[in-house]
Amino acid sequence: MAFTLSSCDWFNTTFLGKPSKAEQELAQLQLEKSRQDSIDLAVANLELQEAINESESQTTSRVEEVILPLNGSRYHILVGSFKEPENADKMMATLQKKDYKPQKVYFKNDFICVSAASSDNAIEMFKMIHEMLNEDFCPIDVWLYDSTTGLHR
User: Fold this and answer.
1) What number does CATH give the domain 75-149?
2) Which residues neighbour 39 within 8 Å (Cβ) at sequence distance 6 or greater?
3) Which among 79, 99, 101, 83 has a CA at the least distance from the CA of 91?
4) Residue 146 Cα distances to 5, 27, 64, 120, 143, angstroms
5) First to last CA, the chain
6) pLDDT 10s per residue in the chain (153 long)?
7) What are phi and psi of 115, to 5 degrees?
8) Strand extents, DSSP E, the chain
9) Is 114 helix (H, G, I), strand (E, B) or coil?
10) Secondary structure (H, E, C), the chain
11) Would you list the domain boundaries of the chain?
12) Among the residues of 67-121, which ranges form H helices?
């Protein structure tokens, strides 16, 4: 008798705690839908990434044609970003006392950044940043700005 009841859906769900055939079919359908959704999402992400890459390559070529280096140099060591011009002037005075040749860089977001040094050689600029970090005036968030990005005015 147990053998005949073991194939019964009611017996399996009630006494053995197994899912019913309808629940098994629903779980299988959900699994297949989930797999298809994952595939569709991966395909959509791939298409989006290809579109972004194509757009970036077109944008990059346009940027390189239009944007020229700031004040004759491509790279600038920025030691501060200020909303108030007086604060930018204070940083410039500090840099002049330390024998740097500071410049103001006016960004499109209306911030004024102060450049401690500039050059077309990025390696030279990174070495200078490393040296500047040992000085008392230099903030720890000093950064190198590539003026060909065109974020400045």
Assistant:
1) 3.30.70.1070
2) none
3) 79
4) 77, 55, 12, 9, 10
5) 88
6) 555 555 666 666 766 677 777 788 888 888 888 888 878 887 787 888 888 777 776 655 444 444 556 677 889 999 999 999 999 999 999 999 989 889 999 999 999 999 999 999 999 989 988 888 888 878 888 989 998 888 888
7) -95, 125
8) 75-82, 103-106, 112-119, 143-146
9) strand
10) CHHHHCCCHHHHHHCCCCCCHHHHHHHHHHHHHHHHHHHHHHHHHHHHHHHHHHHHHHHHHHHHHHCCCECCECEEEEEEEECCHHHHHHHHHHHHHCCCCCEEEEECCCCEEEEEEEECCHHHHHHHHHHHCCCCCCCCCCEEEEHHHCCEC
11) 1-66, 75-149
12) 85-97
In this structure, what token pair is assigned to residue 67?
Answer: 């944007």
> Which tokens in the block code for residue 59?
């944008």
